[in-house]
Sequence to fold (311 residues):
Amino acid sequence: MPAPNVSRKRAHRRPLAASLAAGFGISLAGLVITAAAPTGSPPPPPQEAAGQATQAPKPPDVIYVPTPQGVVVEMLKVAEVKPGNVVYDLGCGDGRIVITAAKDFGARGVGVDIDPKRIEESNANAKAAGVTDKVKFVQQDLFEMDFRDADVVALYLLPTLNVKLRPKLLAELKPGARVVSHSFDMGEWKPDKTLNPEQRSVYLWVIPAKVEGTWEGTAQTESGEKPCAATLTQTFQEVTGTVSLDGKTAPIRSGRVNGDLLELTVMGEDLGLGDSGEVKVRAKVSGDTLTSADESMPWKATRKPAAAPKS
Ligand SMILES: C[S@@+](CC[C@H](N)C(=O)[O-])C[C@H]1O[C@@H](n2cnc3c(N)ncnc32)[C@H](O)[C@@H]1O
Fold:
């Protein structure tokens, strides 16, 4: 699909001017009041000043710069956008990411931008691309957007904004949803993939299921059904802790959650499995249930409710 018809020069100049005006507007206005007000003039009534402050629209947190069309395609490819997926672009600019997702990947898309001019452009570009039935553009602050139904969230913001958005992405997106960012990473949340199309950086994260806690259940071993347990601590996709089988406990050597798949490595000897070396323990996570993803030793465990905080 050709890039939506947006002049890069125009696209840079206008929002930058708007952004500078907004940035300087506040301090210049302050200077004008200080300089122009005759000595002894009463200050504006406080309720009026407060009213003006609440009415002022929030300026964009970052100026508009479009992602090159070739990079858009690579972002959608690495995020494995499939027909029927719902793709959000938080700070959608001229709408090119969701329009491309709809037109070339069969997805549905939602673009959100705080700047009404960008929403106007996005709607015009969607019409020109013939995808108005598949995409929607909303003028809103992205930090207030409900994007729980997203399969993929695209970002081209700033490092500080990505980190500010991180808790909302991790809390609201379903396990397995993908976050793809042009140019900027997520601080301590390390990407699952990084690529460099057209000398740009593109980062991909897969939302991990939440596995932290104490799990208890049973495993079908060669000598019958035995109790099993795990105590897991989670930092983003990384998992540490212990796994127990029939009273024997093994430290986790490496642990990771990839979407809804938990993968742990322990030493078989530690679990009383003879001289078996490294053993991979894999399980599907569904809410508070872990179900073995390997047929060799079926097992199932549920998460113990967290203890109520002491009053
Ligand atoms: C760098 S541009 C990226 C445009 C588009 N996503 C792309 O990659 O081509 C960032 C966009 O975020 C928008 N934006 C900035 N702050 C925002 C906010 N708080 N809520 C929604 N949009 C915002 C800007 O208006 C701008 O269009």
Summary: The longest strand covers residues 224-235. Residues 60-62, 64-67, 89, 91-93, 96-97, 112-115, 118, 141-143, 156, 182 surround S-adenosylmethionine (CB under 6 Å). Residues 8-36 form the longest helix (29 residues).
